[in-house]
Design goal:
single chain; alpha+beta; 9 strands; 25% helix
């Protein structure tokens, strides 16, 4: 009888583990904001890269966890990054299509990151929004683009807890 339970438990574990994907691993925060590796999953704690366009590295200067090439700017606070997917700039909100300032914010983001390698510090407390976009601080050449949007007046603070980031400190 114990063997049957053990066999069932082992089968459940195998099925559960086989359902994991690389994207699941990326979206779970492997590296905390202080740059130390989270060893809660020994199978993924040594992940370095599985795509030539995506790297997972602890960068103490900017807390970059993942980087990739920005291949599309959706609007002033949303971009697409190769190997990572759709990124929503955490803590900021830019005007929507048809609103005053929309094109200026979008053009600024295009100028700063389109075709360039961007670094992402994914929000450890809430890494996805209700639309499935990854929430992150975006860095280009060491510059916090979320903060620049606020400083240049292209965006307003949009703090939605829980978040590891305090956008009010960027003002």
């Amino acid at each position: 009888m114990r063997r049957q339970y053990l066999l069932i438990i082992m089968c459940i574990m195998i099925v559960a583990v086989s359902g994991c994907t690389y994207e699941d691993v990326l979206n779970s925060s492997l590296i905390s904001s202080n740059g130390t590796t989270d060893n809660s999953s020994s199978a993924t704690s040594n992940l370095s890269t599985t795509s030539s366009n995506v790297t997972t590295t602890p960068d103490s200067a900017s807390n970059v966890e993942v980087s990739g090439t920005c291949y599309k700017v959706v609007d002033g606070d949303t971009i697409d990054v190769e190997g990572v997917g759709r990124i929503r700039f955490v803590g900021v909100n830019t005007p929507e299509r048809g609103e005053s300032g929309y094109q200026e914010a979008k053009n600024f983001v295009k100028e700063m990151c389109l075709g360039k390698t961007v670094g992402l510090n994914i929000d450890d407390k809430k890494n996805k929004d209700k639309y499935g976009r990854t929430l992150a601080v975006v860095y280009v050449d060491g510059i916090n683009l979320n903060q620049e949007l606020l400083k240049k007046g292209y965006a307003e603070v949009m703090y939605i807890p829980p978040s590891e980031f305090n956008p009010y400190s960027w003002l």
